[in-house]
Specification:
Helix content: 55-70%
Order of helices and strands: HEHHEEHHH
Strand order of the largest sheet: 1-3-2
Shape: elongated
Strand content: 5-15%
Structural class: alpha+beta
Distance between the termini: 30 Å
Length: about 110
C-alpha cells in the first residue's frame, strides 16, 4: 500500500521495484489481489497490464488502521496506546511535540472526545 499511496497508482512491476527486499513478482501480484479482495485497492486495465490504485487516501486508511490497532491491542483505550507509544520511543519528546500534543488534547476536550 505504501507504494500505491506514494505513487498514486502502480503496476505490479512498479510495486515490485518500489519494495526493498521485495518478494517475487508472483507474490507481489498475489498481494495486490488480496489487497483488492479486502477492499484496500482497485485496478484498471491499461493495455496488457493492470494498474492498481488505493481505494482510500493515506490519511483515511491510516485512521482506519489505527482504530483497528487501538481496538485489538489496547481495548479501545487511547491513554494506554499513547503511553505505549511514549514508552516505545527511542528519544524523549521535544518541547514542541509536547506543546502540539497538549493542543490536540485541549481541542479534544472542547469537542467532547
Amino acid at each position: 500500500m505504501e507504494v500505491l499511496h506514494t505513487r498514486g497508482q502502480a503496476s505490479a512491476a512498479e510495486v515490485l521495484a518500489g519494495i526493498p527486499d521485495a518478494p517475487s513478482y508472483s507474490a507481489v501480484r498475489a498481494l495486490l489481489r488480496i489487497l483488492e479482495d479486502k477492499g484496500y485497492a482497485r485496478h484498471r486495465r491499461e493495455g496488457m497490464r493492470y494498474v492498481y490504485l488505493p481505494k482510500e487516501s493515506r490519511e483515511r486508511a491510516s485512521r482506519s488502521a489505527l482504530k483497528r490497532v487501538l481496538s485489538t491491542f489496547f481495548n479501545g483505550s487511547v491513554d494506554q496506546a499513547v503511553a505505549a507509544l511514549l514508552e516505545a520511543s527511542d528519544k524523549p519528546l521535544t518541547e514542541s511535540e509536547v506543546n502540539r500534543l497538549q493542543g490536540i488534547i485541549n481541542q479534544a476536550k472542547k469537542e467532547g472526545h
